[in-house]
Amino acid sequence: QDQFWFFFLHGNCFIVPVMPSSLFTKLSRRDAIQLVGWLASTSVPHPAKASSSITSTDAQNLLALIPKRNFDAPATNATISAELTSQIESLAASMENHQSNNAQSPLLRGNWRLLYSNGAEITNLATNLPLGFQLGKTVQPIGNDVFENRGTLDHPLKLAHWQTNVIGDVRVAPAGSLNAAGVKNDRGNRVDVDFRVLVFVLDEVFGRPVRFQKILIPRPLAKGKPQPANDITYLDETLRIVRGGDGALFIFQRENDVKLLTAEERNLLLGSSATSKQERIDVGIGMAEKSSSPELQFLFQERKQ
User: Fold this and answer.
1) In angstroms, what CA-CA distances link 110 with 39, 96, 150?
2) Which one-letter DSSP state was computed for residue 184?
3) How many CB atoms lie within 10 A of CB 192?
4) Confidence label for 272 from pLDDT (cuts 50, 70 and 90)
5) End-to-end distance of the chain based on CA atoms, in angstroms?
6) In sequence order, what are the beta bridge partners of 205?
7) CA dihedral of residues 272, 134, 257, 63 (deg, nearest 10)
8) SS3 3
9) pTM of this prediction?
10) Helices then strands (H, E): number in the chain?
11) What does the mean pLDDT of the chain come to?
């Protein structure tokens, strides 16, 4: 079972896993110095405190800027005004890269909801789905060494309801590694990800429950291709800012009503995919080859200009 430490400082209760977490922005200078001394006495790495120029108000302001969308879908640069996009991305950029060792922080583990992205894979889904379908809630549960990317596709007339889930492994990236954009991992904020299974589930048609599931298996990473990786450029108890391997921006808020698949559920999917003749696919960024499965063609159509 997970174990936690409880800190009571100036009337605030902080609950953190056994592995020390980053310093809290609410601490006074005296409390922070005392806590740093205690953390330094342990051998477990912990993320550095954010620069003094970053405050909890910045995080609150960023969250307040991001508008709510139908079906709890994430906002994107293609679905909100250019002015609001600029405000969100400018504030997010000002908060980035003041922390280090976020890849090893216990704060990374948990259940995260995607609030905003300018990544091609998200903007395509948010603007180009056929038949009136709309991107819905998109979440990312993260465990010790596993992650999931879950999305829903909804329809205003309840024509059907789809769920997608990308299941994979996550690990701390080597120091000094380069991502697809050529950015060096010099702060310890990068995690490498390996995609294991992509699951499509159709669970509702015309408001009636159904059950159709298809499993697609990503091909092994081709030689010479960059390792899929994410940089966690800002992290606190409620907010996570991420840069994808191509530099795309993803802003997440912690949410408690989402849980990872159990080990049994995960192993069942991985086991069935390993022993079956499921289709092998290439996992790209916001696109699918013409020879891809109908499901991927449905999701990643060429955007109309």
Assistant:
1) 22, 20, 14
2) B
3) 19
4) low
5) 52
6) 160, 208
7) 130
8) coil
9) 0.74
10) 6, 13
11) 78
